[in-house]
Amino acid sequence: MRIAIASDSHDNLTAVSKLVEALKEENVELLIHCGDFVSPFTLKKLLSEIPCDFTGVFGNNDGELLGLSTVSGGLIEKPPVSKTIDGKRFVLMHEPLFVDSLAKSGDFDYVIYGHTHRIDLRVINGCRIINPGELCGYLSGKSTFVILDTHQNAVEVRVLK
What we know:
The protein is an alpha/beta fold. It has a single domain (2-160), classed as 4-Layer Sandwich (Purple Acid Phosphatase, chain A, domain 2), CATH 3.60.21.10. The chain is built from 4 helices and 11 strands, in the order E-H-E-H-E-H-E-E-E-H-E-E-E-E-E.
């Protein structure tokens, strides 16, 4: 399964639009967003335009929780969230709490997080850790997301232009 992973969009509607266009080209089946959408209008735009399924978690800058919950129809959850996707065990979160411990536990195939605005791609104890960096591009100057192929267990970083 091809999964796009993004985080920290921080109301950057230009980056959200570019992500939507990239997702159409990437032929992904699911978008995982690791939080910090910030406002419901950003999420509404994203969900109305993406060509795939969606799941996500709240971030520390997501202040309008009721609005985000309403717009998402319950597709955004309070982290950490454990999910089985394509037969693989995922834990999704925003802040990097216990990332290494979760990876070492043997309970997950993938630990997915955001918050730091820095790309983090590592493997610990056979568990792949993924932080896609920042979609907004505010801190690094680069709007990034990741494509995960669960069949190949391969991860590729994409930079939006």
